[in-house]
Amino acid sequence: MDLIRQSPFARILETRSFKELNKKASTYLNLDWSRYPQAGYITAHLLSGSVITNIQSGQTILVNEVEFYGRDAMLDCHKEPTGEQKGVPEKTSIPSTTGEEYYKRVRPVTLRRRDGVRLVIGTNTCGVLVTSCIRVDRILEGSISVGGDTRNFEISESELKNIRVFVDNERLGKGKKMKKKTVKKITKDFGADRLRQVRSKFHRLNTFRLIRCSGPLTDAPQFRPFSVFTIGRNSDRDSASSGAAHIFYKMALAVIHYQEKATFTLEDIRFGQQLCQSAKDISIPMQNIHELFAEVDTKIPIIGNKPLNKQLHAIAEAQSTRIAKANKNVATELKDLFLG
Mean pLDDT of all residues in the chain? Predict the structure, then answer.
């Protein structure tokens, strides 16, 4: 591909091979979740490591990391919002039926939300959020985006016809094989770093789907954006942030292993409390969680526990600025990887 050979990052990009999105690949991106529970994993696998280019402007990115969100609230409580804002239909990543996009049933688009600018690759069955990418058409300040607020590559409605997507050939081959595997087999080696960066609905089981995916060039811990479940890797061991990170990580492991039967232990809450006394935005909801334990309880359920979720939501909000700061370190690691 000329856009790869002409890239200032050609040295590393040419270690991979790419193929333009075609009808067959589009079919894989649009598999029905109710018939194929593994569909979202296939989609994330195919689009992480992909190259997206605007053939008119020449702007091009390599997608380093994605996380996917379903269209059906019964299958994914964090589904992309639809509806109206002040009487105006909210812009979504759902593909049009009138041919606005270059690819049928695939719509890469920028969505402006209250909490940031989102680059989403939409299909009929899910929206794939780009959480890390790098401009590869030229070297410029701010060429690396980490954390899902993507301002280095934006796609307006008028540019949809100019967008081309190239998937990694190796990922395409593996994606086809994944259709024959169960979700359990696909995710058997996945850990908390595969959980999405969310701030709410911790009482819902599908919040804990292992549906983040890294591209082949960035599939290592130092290149992955942080989340409430993994921020502990970047926190001072004795900091308030570390105390909050501890309980989210423990919660993630419990749900991954025990699903609906997962529990929080009083021991974990006490450990977290010891570290967060200096930060009221964390220590107060942490104390409220402690008070959810009855005198004789050493464990409380996670799934279905709305009072617990309310306090976890408050802590997750408090961690947001800390996560954004930590992601700057990830951007530095990515810069070293691509620029040497």
Answer: 92
